Amino acid sequence: MRAAKPGCIEVAFNGSRGRIPLDAQFSVPAKGITAIVGQPGCGKKTVARCIAGFTRLPAGFCALDGEVWQDEARFRPPHLRPVAYVAQRPILFSQLSVRRNLLYAAAKSTPTKVDCNEVVELLGLASLLDRSASTLSGGERQRVAIGSALLSKPRLLVVEDLLAAQNREILQFLERLHENPTLPMIYLSHHTADIEHFADHLVMMEHGIVTAAGPLQALQSDPALPLASRRDAAVSLDAVVSGYDGRYGLIILRLKGARLLVPGTPLAPGTRRRLRIAACDVSVAREAPRASSILNIIPARINASIPFDAAEVTLVLALEIGGSAAQILARIPRRSFDGLGLSDGMDVFAEVARFLPVAAFDPSPRAVAAATRANEQQ
User: Which domains does the chain have, with CATH numbers?
Assistant: First the structure.
């Protein structure tokens, strides 16, 4: 009998549901946000329903943090699994207000560190509390459903992909959930461009099969996967605020292998910031430039080179020579690659012309003032 690993979400489902055979196996940490990504019909929703216990495949294994929910000898039904499942079109008590929907969910659970006020603030529900659930838009219903799910105190939250019209409205709140993790989440999506803002781990599916699983940044920069060879290839990195240059309006960030300067308003030291670095915004040099307008020039090593087309090459760059560090991508002309005599394993300098801080909300004036005072005292 298979043993379950503490600290992990473990999945292994094999069988057929409808026209698509399923062969889905992965293990991810039981914390943060895991996105299951694939085109419609790839099987990701079937996997999610198997995890929740709504769908049963005889050949299956499912465990959360060392607790087995399904194996060859047992099957725990949905009502005995501490999972909250938020569907694409969530069902609410339409005759009740938003406030009463939330209080109903809270009343059914035991007290924990998450309370109703925290959930209302987290998901921006204050202005909706007195409205009838029947008057909400699709995105508003999704937020209320997520709030109700959080208040039911599950050990795992599963959220289906959103309708296109609701996407922009809800994604910013998922980013906020990423910054305030209270429980592990599995999020289903068609698009990697959406989940790169908040996901910690990624599971890629195609035709019912898991083709890759691991940390988001590792899969984005893996030369063996299609993410690194896309036209819009980019890497998402989590950095930590270490200071602020008030003279030039620059946030000082640190991540594994690099120190970065990013234009922006003050943030409290220790604040985590996610950055999106596109391959097209990174170039390389054999020697450190003596003078350049680019602020972020980082010693790096070429880990791999991938032909993109007849004119361009994609480089996978490790940001710290001789150590385990973050990786980014650079898209450069093939002529430059040959002219500079570049090759795998070579030490270079990565010139990051631009990167986009990913944030759902700008800090409040009070937070800005506090961060400014903290930086002035350093």
Answer: 8-215 (3.40.50.300), 234-358 (2.40.50.100)
